Structures are given as structure tokens and as C-alpha cells.
Amino acid sequence: MLVLHPFRFRDTCIRCGFVVRLYNFFNHVDMRKFHYFLFAAAMLMLSVSAQGQIGRRFPSERKVVKDPVTGVELVFLTSQQGVGNAKPYQTHNQWTCDGKWVIFTSSQRVQGEALLVNEETGDIVQVTEGGYNGMLNLSRKEMKLYISRPHYDKETRKQLDKYNKEVAALRKQMQASGQQAGQRQQLQTKTPRPVVGNEFVAIDLSAVLADSEAGKMKKMSEYETVLGVTPVEWGGGTLAALDGDEKIAFFSVGREYAASQAGDMVMEKTFGPRNMGAGPSGLAYMDLTNGECHYIRTIPFQVGHIQGNPWHAKEVVFCWETGGKAPTRVWAMNADGSNYRPVYKEASHDWVTHEAVITEDEIVIAVLGHRPISETQEASDNTGDPTNPGQELSWGYSGTREYATGIATVNLRTREFILEGQIPFGSGFWHVAGSVDGNWVAGDDFARNIYLVDRHTHELIHLSAGHKETASDHPHPTFKPDGTAIEIQSAMLQEDGKSRDICIIKMPQYLLDRYKK
């Protein structure tokens, strides 16, 4: 039974504001009716709270365990069953600039919002409200989070509300008519869905965390600054990445606008069995100091992951996305469109994937060795087994260990390629990362093991295991900026073997001491 003290509840009403008049009304009735009201209002407050407000706090789930295979210390910052936690992609910063908080999302805890978890205490705090699109971009210089979201003025908001009501009514009609699950039907509304730009927003995390701890949250607008809005006619426009100075933010534009700016550029066609990779794409940036948007250039292929270089202003790295092997995966250029170039010129037998900027002048890549030589002697139109992605014959002669494979670094200035190491079994490295000090690279394999490679000696070190091949996503290792830990996604503690937790792998002290100055 939920019991609330009348005077404490009155104070809560006053702070919350939304039930003050109801409280005043019931303040003149008998106490039995009043207690019924207390119970109902408490349920209402819990319901509102469940929707998720900025600054909302969750109890610590932090658990420290020993890796069952390697004995390395694992710090699970989340451990609740089945709430679907996820870290940002390894191309992006995961820690706040003070090194204390890790950003993540949790689809069943607070859907569509971002949260921070304290690495030492395990405290969890919601830091967005109303959702976001694009990538979560934590500043490396200030306690700020940069996000984007659709920008609606009063008229477009009314249009969206009207559109949503019509969609809801049509879906209700479809259900009433006995439409079978999975049957596709075009929802023809009288009101078109409004086309809008995206606003880029900076959130003051210091203020959010301080007010959350004090229990005195303000309105969301008190913590955020709208920096600008992308042009509607450019299409797309979700925030992709910050540049090194954090004065501009890169974003992609829609195909139609990119095509209109292409001139006589020849576009690439689809590549591989997934029929992806065709151009055009377009890249642009917003000047975060004044909100002005600048188009960089049209790209003749489908652009996938986009990242800035944290050490170089106005340098952007991006990939040719095909859903598998690309003719040349990794590209870079400056924010004015100059120095547009492939970072690593692949041979036809190379299968490169999952690039990440790791030092001032270097990226790390995975050169996959996941395909048996006997199955790829000749290219074929046969798409192979669709339940075993990456093995289709029509990817061509690539990704085998007849040639050099493994985790590699490439210099962004000289294009020097160094093969750092490879796992001598299985399918090899998949997602890769590197330490800022230049001493280590790390990667996961298809079985969710985590490995380190010493860049000076090329020693291969099995760092962690037991993260379950059945997990709904891959570990995606990312180094902490100070090099003392690696963050991954892990299903080790999950009973279903699929849901993910946020896990910190502590670098063993003997490895930290190896290159201590």
C-alpha cells in the first residue's frame, strides 16, 4: 500500500504545479476522500514520471565481476534485465569531458532519450527530454551534449498533430476491418506530413546533473541552447559529428539536393548483393557560433558513418556504405571540400570496415578475414545463404586470408598502412578502436571476444570473453580518453543472452605500467 504524508504531498504538489488546484479542492473535504485522492494522484505522478523527464534519476545497477576467462575486472554500469541498453557507435566520444560519466540509451527504460551513468557510483540520470535524432555528440572540451531534433514552428506543429490524428484513425479502421498482421497498406492522409529542418541543440550537462542531484529541476528549455536550424530544402540534416574545435557540426543532406549540386559528376552504382552504395550523397556543416549552414560537396556514393577529427578543426572522415564490402571504404576531406580523398586505397581482395579516428593523424580499420578461400574463388551472381550475411558469393573475391587481414592503422597525412595484428582463428577482427596515446589498438571478433594489440610489439592479448554470441548487437569497443579502460556492450549478465548492458573493462595494471612515463 502506498502511503503519503498529507503535508509532504502538499509540498510535492506545490513544486510540481500540475495538481495544486486539485489539492486545494480536496483540502476542504473529509480525510477518507482525501486519502483516495492521494492514492489516485500518486498513481498519476508515477505515470507522468514513467514517461521520463530530464534529470530523472535511476538507482545504481553497478556490479563488478571478474572475467570468467581472463580474470580481468569488468564493471557493469547497467545490469537490470531486459531493458535494452546501448552505447553510441565507436566513432564517437562516450565519456563526458571530466571522465566521470558515460552516455548511453535504454529502449525499455526511457525510450528515445539519452542517459548518463556515473562510472564510480553507478548513478543514472536522464539528460534529454522530447527525444532526438542523429548521433549523440559529447563535447571533449565542456560538459555539454549536442543533439538534433525536428524543428516545428506553430503552423507545422498543428499540421503534424493533424497528420498524426489522421494516421491513428486510419490504423484504427484497418484494425477494425481485420487487416492481417504484416500486411502492407499505404496510409493515405488528407493532410501531408510536414517537411521540416532539424535544429541543433547544446545541453548544459553541468546544470542538469547539479539540479538533478539537488532535486530541483527546471524546464528543459532552461538547460538547452538552440544553435541553428538546417534548411528544409536540403533534406536530411540530423547532427552527425562535431569537428575538432567544436565550432561546427557536420551533417548529411538529402539525395535530391545533393543531385542538384552535382554538376557533371558521375555517380557510383550499387555494389554487392544488398543493392546499396549508389550516389549521390551530400555533406554539409552548421557553424555552431551563428547557426549558418554551409554545403560542402556532393559525394558520388552512399555515405555511411560520419566522424570529425577531435584534434583537427574542419576535418571530416566518412565511409562508402554498401552494407558490406565497398570498393573503397574510408574517405576524408576538409570542411571547404578540399583534400577530398580515399584514406586507404583498397585492393579488390580487401574487405575494409569499421573505421575510427584514434589519434591526431591516424585511423584504425578492420581488414576482414571472415570468408573461406574455397567459397570465393570466382565472383558470382549467386547471393548465397541470406541467413549468413557477408558470405554471399556476389561480394566477389574478397575478405579471405589468402591476403593480409587484421586490425590496421592508417596515417591520415602520409597514408602509411600498418597491419597491427590478427586473430589466428575464426573470422578475425570486426569492430576496432585505439588508444589516444598510440600504444594500443583493440577489437572484437564475431564471437564477442575482446582483444588488445600492443602497437610497439604487436603482441596479441585476449582481454575479455563471455559476452555471448547471441547478443542483439556487437561489443563495439571504445577506449576511454585516458587509456585506462575500454567500454563495450555485453549480454554476459542477461538471462535472455540477448539484451545488452554497458560494461567497462579495466585495463590490467601491468599493461598500464608497460608504457608509463
Fold blueprint:
Blueprint: H1 6-16, H2 20-26, H3 31-51, E1 57-58, E2 63-66, E3 73-76, E4 85-86, E5 101-106, E6 110-118, E7 124-126, E8 133-138, E9 144-150, H4 154-176, E10 198-204, H5 205-214, E11 224-229, E12 239-242, E13 248-253, H6 255-260, E14 278-287, E15 293-301, E16 303-308, E17 315-320, E18 330-334, E19 341-342, E20 352-359, E21 362-367, E22 406-411, E23 417-421, E24 429-434, E25 440-445, E26 450-454, E27 460-464, E28 478-479, E29 485-490, E30 501-506, H7 509-512
Antiparallel strand pairs: 1-7, 2-3, 3-30, 4-5, 5-6, 6-7, 8-9, 9-10, 10-11, 12-13, 13-14, 14-15, 16-17, 17-18, 18-19, 20-21, 21-22, 22-23, 24-25, 25-26, 26-27, 28-29, 29-30
Task: List its traits.
517 residues, 32% strand, Methylamine Dehydrogenase, Chain H, 7 helices, disordered N terminus, alpha+beta, 5-stranded antiparallel β-sheet
Structure overview:
By secondary structure, the chain is α+β, with helices and mostly antiparallel strands. The protein has a domain at 353-517: Methylamine Dehydrogenase, Chain H, CATH 2.130.10.10. Helices cover 16% and strands 32% of the residues. It has seven helices and 30 strands. The protein has helices at residues 6-16, 20-26, 31-51, 154-176, 205-214, 255-260, 509-512; strands at 57-58, 63-66, 73-76, 85-86, 101-106, 110-118, 124-126, 133-138, 144-150, 198-204, 224-229, 239-242, 248-253, 278-287, 293-301, 303-308, 315-320, 330-334, 341-342, 352-359, 362-367, 406-411, 417-421, 429-434, 440-445, 450-454, 460-464, 478-479, 485-490, 501-506. β12 (239-242) and β13 form a beta hairpin. The longest helix has 23 residues, at 154-176.
